Amino acid sequence: MKNNNLPILPERRLFLALSAIALLAGGLLLFTFAGTDTSRFFCTSSDNLFHSKPDPIQLKSILHYATSRIVPQQSFSEITISFDVLRAISPCNLLVFGLGHDSLMWASFNAHGKTLFLEEDPTWVRTVLKDAPELKAEVVKYRTKLAEADELMRTYRSEPECAPAKSYIKGNTRCRLALTGLPDEVYDTEWDMIMVDAPRGWFAEAPGRMAAIYSATVMARNRKKSGVTHVFLHDINRKVERAYANEFLCQKYRKHSVGRLWHFEIPPASNVTDDNHGAWFC
């Protein structure tokens, strides 16, 4: 058996000393020949460093969800659909109707893009931003109530300012489904992805998501950039969300259906040839 208490022999001391000197000399020689450019010896090319340094909001998101008992309302399978789209198109312009426990997650998925949250409750906005000041959120006032959903669906076609041929929301006070009180940044930005997971829509006096769905459709149709606008609608198990999705977002543009989430790819109106001569959205 090996005795670890035996003294180190002089010959072994000399060997260890010579080995250390050789390693030091070799290192100095290597950097002498390499100069300041060490890329020829080490994997430090720009390609290998792509996304190697996390954004601060991504690090905060990891810390937040790793230490919190509160999780996003959407399921893993629902989030995965949106995540896959963001992974393909990010950095991009992401507009989210709703500010909640998943907001830090969406912002971190699009860390190098523009992410804006629209929320109806100013008190809730202050609460969320207190813990996550990195998020960008705006308070939105809605002109509708969930109790009006059926009436709005019956009457919007009789209002010319709601028609696809008009297709605008800023200043469109005659169309009750148009969100006219949004910040200019919303109107001035071409959004690559729109998530509709708000406002509240489960009691009669709540705003409902009718205007959010209509306005998301108009923004997508008015897109000038190439490609489609990805629109995600959550809670399609509810009557109003499903009816308004079928009326404005159109089943022919639906790409995925997972759990309570529908994903649409809406092309610009300029790229669409339809049979109703632009009279209706679908």
TrEMBL record:
Any one annotated GO CC term: Golgi membrane
Pfam families per the UniProt record, alphabetical: IRX15_IRX15L_GXM
Keywords assigned by UniProt, alphabetized: Membrane, Transmembrane, Transmembrane helix
PANTHER family: OS11G0490100 PROTEIN
Domain of life (superkingdom): Eukaryota
Membrane topology (UniProt): Single-pass membrane protein
Annotated protein name in UniProt: Polysaccharide biosynthesis domain-containing protein
Subcellular location: Golgi apparatus membrane
Gene Ontology biological process terms, A to Z: xylan biosynthetic process
Presence of keyword Transmembrane: yes
Biological classification of the source: Eukaryota, Viridiplantae, Streptophyta, Embryophyta, Tracheophyta
Record organism: Deinandra increscens subsp. villosa
Keyword Transferase: no
